[in-house]
Structures are given as structure tokens and as C-alpha cells.
Records
---
Amino acid sequence: MPIDVARVQAALRARGLDGWLLYDFHGSNPIATHLAGLAGGGATGHMTTRRWYYLVPATGEPRSLVHVIERHNLDSLPGATTIYAGRQELADGLRQLLAGLTRVAMEYSPGGAIPYVSRVDAGTVEAIRQLGVDVVSSGDLVQQFEAVWDAAALASHREASERLYRVKDRAFAAVRDRLQAGTPTTEYDIQQLMVGWFGEEGLVSDSAPNVSAGGNAGNPHYLPGVNATRPIGRNEIVLLDLWGKRDRPGAVYADITWVGFTGPRPPAEYTRAFDAVRGARDAALALVQEAARTGRALAGFEVDRAARAVLERAGYGPQLLHRTGHSLGTEVHGNGVNLDDYETHDDRRLLPGTGFTIEPGVYFDTFGIRSEINVVMGEHDATVTGPMQPSLVLLG
């Protein structure tokens, strides 16, 4: 659906901005192409091989600047259009487009701090600033118009979550049954079973799920393949990370991680690590829920700090390798706030109507532990959309 101009203008006025300048070249800014209704490129009948700009001012009519051979790309959007061909016409058109403005938002992040927002190249930002117009980050605008779920999206997330939990249960049962029967089983074997169950459940994903055992669980982004897998043995950790969404337009992802142990009694080092990770997860969730209930603005970096503090106090500082959580959307890593003060400093606030993961983990050479839940931020509360793992799943 194309951009809602009236809502954008209200948001711009609330933030004291003169406008939101959408810009794209050759698909370099997927946020802009989606908001402009151009997502999919040629599949929608549009070629986007030239630079285009679409300005939504805080007041007044929107306006666009497009290349002559792609002059009709933004016809579905309201506002006047200026056409350019040569580079001088582009420079003159851009000056005219921004006349009278002093401060605009673009998909820019100071210092590249939030890469998910940092979509406009440095040269284009320089060109805007050389016209006397300040460029600020559109990060919170992007959240408001790209990351907030409507009722249908929320329903699709809950459906996906229920199905992922069923696939997770079947996968652990398959590991348990094969171990008891003495059937040789690899990570890839279980992964491929899960791929089949995704199909039965009507789920799609950008990747096959992760099944990692033993030392492979210590690699947060390990993914087995036909030529890269290991047997699942007894008395070791098995980590399942699975993400998917319903196969329909506008559906949003669910993304969970659970951990099992292929024996009757896990070693103390495994249970201690799991207990710390669970404590970090629950501390992050408690902070989010307290903020939602009291109406306090809460930034993503604050939630990351809360989880990280638990793990550091438990002595796991060196085993922390990633942020605490990420936004969920129509892509598994959405355009909303991430729970991050480690890889980046995400100072965007958690908005009602957004969904995200909480997934602290600790990683060693011989095993890894992560617990991942999905949370939906409401107006007055925050809800976990599935069971939270209380202890290691025993598969022995």
C-alpha cells in the first residue's frame, strides 16, 4: 500500500521536521521502494534503474523528481512531478524540490550506527546538505510506518508462532526417537524433516531452520547443509532455531530458539548457562512489560543492557557475541527497533504495535545456549506470543 501522506505529515509536524525525502537508486533503499509502492521492481511493471526522489512535506502537496525514461514510476502517489534527464536538470530539479526547507528526514543513520536505517549513500546526503538542508535520521518514522503491525499482521504472527512451536516439538521428538532406536541421525537429517513440516504447516522462510549440536551450537549463525553437518550424539546440546511466516501478502515472521540435551541429566555447566540465559531473557521481558504498563518510553539499547547485565554478573561476559533481540516484520529482521547496545547503539524507542525477539545467548567452543521468545508491544502491556522455555528439554 502506498504511503499515507496525511499520517506522515502529522508525524513530521510532531517531530518538528519540514519533510521526509524518500530516495532510491537501483533498489538501494528498500524502505523507500516499499513506501512508494515500487517493491518488487520489474514484477510490478516498474523499472527502477534511475534516481528518484519523493518529498512529503510537513504541510502542502507532496512532489517528486523522476527520470524521463521512468517518468511514470510514481504516478500512483499524490503530488506534482518534475522530470529530469541530464545531470544538470537533476541538480536544478533537486534544488527546486527542496526550496524553502531546512530539515528533512532520510534513510540515514549518523555514523552508520543503525545499518537497517542507513540506506542513503553519503554522496546523496552531501548533495542535500550542500543545498542548505539538514538531513536527520528517519529511523522513528520508518518504525511508525513500516514496523507497526495491523490486526491482520498480528494474527498472521500468532498463526506462524503456533506452527513453529509444533515443528519444534516434532523435531525434538524425532531426535529423541532416533536416539532411543539407535538410528544414526545428523543435524541435516532433522533440518530436512523440519523443512517438510514447514510445508505441511503452510510456512515459508528465507532459509531452512537451524539444527546445531555440540560445538556447532556455539556458532550463533551455524546452518547445516548436505555437505556441512555432523551426527547428533548422546549427552550433548542440540539447539533449534526456526523462523517462518504464513504464505500470504503482509504476513509477518515468528522466530524462536529452544535448546535440548540428548541425555538424562545435563552437566552443571549446561544448566548453569541455561539458567543465566533464562534470567537474562526474563529480565529483559520484565523491563519491557514494566515500561508498557507505566507508559515510559523505552529504547532498544536499554533492554539490551538489562539482559547483558544479568549475563555479565554470572561471569559470561566473554561469551556474549550478539545483541539481545531484533525487530520482526515481513522480513525476519524487520525495520523496527533492535534490542541492541552491543553491535550498535539503538536509541529508537519500542512502539506500541511492533513485534520483536528477545534472545540472549552464551557461546563456547563446545556448546552454546540461547533462548528466544517473541514479544508484541501493546498500548498498555507487552505480550509473549508463545511458551517460554523453562529448562533444557531432555532428549535422553
Note: The two ends are 50 Å apart (CA to CA).
---
Amino acid sequence: MKIDENTRDLLRQGTNLFFSFAQFLVTLLPALGIGTGIGDRASGGEPLVQPIFWAFFIWFPIYAGCMAYGVFQSLPAQREAEVLRRIGFATGSAFIGVTVYALVAQFGGSDWLLIAIFIWILASLIPAYLGLAAYRERLTRSEHYLVLAPVSLLTGWVSLAILVNIAAVLKYDGIIPAGTMEIVFSVVLLVIAFLIAMYLTRAGAGNAWYAFPVIWGLFGVVVANVIREPNPVVAITAGLIALALSGVLLMARRKGENATSRNN
């Protein structure tokens, strides 16, 4: 049965509105005695690429931004917005993924299943992020702060967090033993994180909303490897990559500004 455009719009809006709130609300279940907190799953020691604990507080502005996006895109005036039609089902899929991730984590699901869910989330976010990049010059001020910003923040954090989760699972399963091998593996993961972030930062024409959570997470890795478990190799690598990504961001923004000036 073919679904008409109006029904698709309502489905898209309803999905984003509901799950933009649900992905945060389900994290409160352990406070009600239902399930176990996501942070309480950690065992066997944190991987070297895991940021210091307070770096994860970035989820609060991410959740708030996503909820603001959910409300904004649900307004009747936004029902036929071209950019929201283009990215809406992708962001809805990502919000569902974050919700499912929290539920699986809190109820003792497999670590490898969590990795698969993280891949689902990132695979949903990247098309939305790139779709917004294509509309960057046409976004209104409201769309910039209520659509581009939250989607980019979530994409940035997830693109780093997925690698942290992979490292945690491999360490917990004993596939990557502590010591020199873990240090080498951590450096490789950080380089991969940089390559992904560099591509997406440039694709977003110097999107600071995307780059900031990655740089923030890398700074958290530096602090963790200075305070939590001193490891100068990983700390220096993370710091250098954070600086390199900052340079990529500045150059990409300057290139985008020059392109805009020429077009005007």
C-alpha cells in the first residue's frame, strides 16, 4: 500500500518527536530501580582510549538539543520543510538506535550487540549530517541551531564513541591484552578517529558543531591518560590529534567562507 506524502510527514515527525525524548528518558530507568546504569556495566578496566568520566556529561547538551530538534521539526509549519523531509527518517532511525542501545545496555545485553547498534546509529546519522551539509547555505537561523547543531553534536560524539566501545569490548574479552599491544592498538584507533573526523569536518565545510564533541572527547582521553592511568604515548597522541583536527576545522571553515564570498 502506497503511503501518501502527508502520512509520511506525520510518521516522520512523530517518530522524531517521540524518540528524541525517549532516548533520554530510558536512561532514567535505573534511578527507578529498573535495569542497571550504563556506566555500571564497565568491568575489566577501561580501555586507554576511553575519555575521563566527566567527558561523558556532553550527553546532556546532546539530549537537550535532540529534544529541541524533535519539538521544532514536529511543528505544523515544519511539516513540509524540504531539509527535514530529506533527513527526518535518518534522524528518527538514529534516535531509535540510541534508545535501543540504552535499553540493551541497561538490561545486560551482549557487548557485541551494542557495537552493532552503535554502527546502526552512526550509519543513520552520517546521511543526515551530509544531507544538512548540502543545505548549509540555505538553512535558516532556527534550522542552524535547532537542526544542524544537535544532529552534528550527536554525530560527532558517536563517531568517536563507537571506537571507544570497540576498544572496551576487545579489552574485556581479552582479545587486546593490556600492555604494549593495547598502546599500539589505541594509537591506531585514535588515528582512525582522526581520519573519520577529518573527512566529516571537511564534508561539513568546517562544521564546528561536529568537530567540538570529537575534540572534547580527545581532550578527555588526554586527561584520562594523565590522571586515571598514566600513559604518555596515548595522551600525547590524543593531544596531537585534537590539535590536528582543530587545524582541519579552521582550514575547512576558511575555505567555506572564501567560497561563500566568491559566490556573493
Note: The chain has eight helices and no strands.
---
Amino acid sequence: MSYFEAILLGIIQGLTEFLPVSSSGHLELAKAIFGDDALPLESLTFTVVLHFATALSTMVIFRKEIFQILKGLFQFKWNEELQFSLKIILSMIPAVIIGVLFEKEMEIFFSGQILLVGFMLIITALLLLFADKAKQTDKHVSYLNAIIIGVSQAIAILPGISRSGATISTSVLLGVDRTKAARFSFLMVVPLIFGKVAKDILSGEISFESANIGQMSVGFITAFISGLFACNWMISLVKRSKLSYFSIYCFVIGAIAITYALLK
């Protein structure tokens, strides 16, 4: 992988992590175009590094909200911040279960499964289309909503299913206010990513010995910077109900990926 490819992959991750078009799916498509011949574990390592960068950009964008949540938690009262944190924890459970029980099986999905990515992008397109037609409300995320949204996040581990697209669409279809849905969607993934990175580093499952640290660093920086831009942009788009545009995009890219995989 060249530095140019690392920069491009970082930009793709930064933009597509927040835009509902599947960051993991686009990374797999880009690596296939570049002729990436990395082992599944090495390819997954680079993907995790880029996701870590966008998790940091999320923390920067929502720094005030995160500070208020932490401040409320240390008051040790049944307040809004504690309840929000409990909902975040509930939303994490499905993805944690999948990650723990099927971690090895999931690695194969990050090794050039272009046909799978294509079909999952079509599913993402349908989700976004349905969500765009949903009525706007002012409801908050309930505890039951948090669990259902968490199931969507777990399914979105598959490359091609947009995590933000699946969680925001699920929230909106459940009647949650669009702005609150976007906020919850972006914040709920931060603990998961940090936990995943910490676990893999401590267990030695992510190894940087055979990877190019310089290229990963460049990819990390570009993913972080582009993530800052995309996060703010996505919040404004969700408010204006513009998800149908991304639905069309996902359908087109999904169709191209399926055609490419079948003809290759």
C-alpha cells in the first residue's frame, strides 16, 4: 500500500463513517480496486485504525455533550445523563455479543468480499429510502429503542451495511427525533471502537509489526480530519431529510459492486 492509497482510504473512511454509505464497504471496494493482497488480519488492522480515527473526531464534535454526560455521571443521581449512558450501554450489548462470539468468523468479511458488499449496500439503500419517508417527531430514544438500535448496529458490522445509516434509519423509523437519532448514533459507537482497539492491542490480535506505521499514521490523520467535516455535514443533512440522495448513491454503488464481482 502506497502513501497515496493510505491517504485516499483515510479520506474514504472519514467521509463514509458518518455519511450513510458504509465506511467498511467502501474500504473493501477501494482495497479491491487497489489490488490489496493483505491478509484478512492485516486488512482488518488498517480498518480498525481508521475507525479509531473517526471515533476521535466524533469525540471532538460532541465534546460538550460528552463532558456533560461525564459530569452528570459523577453526580451519582438518577439524572438525564445517567439515563442516556445506560441507553448507550444497552445499545452496545448486541454488537459486543457478536464481536465476542463471532470475531474470527467476521474477519473473512474484510478480505475482498465484493459481492457481499454490493448486496449489503442495496439493503442500506432500502433502509435509507424508508427512513426518508418517515414522519418527523420530537421523541427521545427509549430503553427499548436503544436495544433495537443496538441490533441494527450489530448487523452493520457486515461491510456494506452502513452503521450510521442503519442506526439512524432504525431510530427514525421508531419515531425518534432526527437530530436526537443522529446524536445517539454517533455517540453509541465511540465506546465500542475504543473497547475493540484496547482489546485487540492487549490480546495481541492487532499487530503493527508487519504493517507500515507511516502509512497507517497518514491514513489515521486523513480519516480524522475528513471525519470532522463529515460529522457536521451529516447532522445538517439528517435535519433536512436528505437521506434519499444517499439511498440512490448506495443503490448505484451496490449495483456496480455486484456487477464487478460477477464479471471478475
Note: The first helix runs from residue 3 to 18.
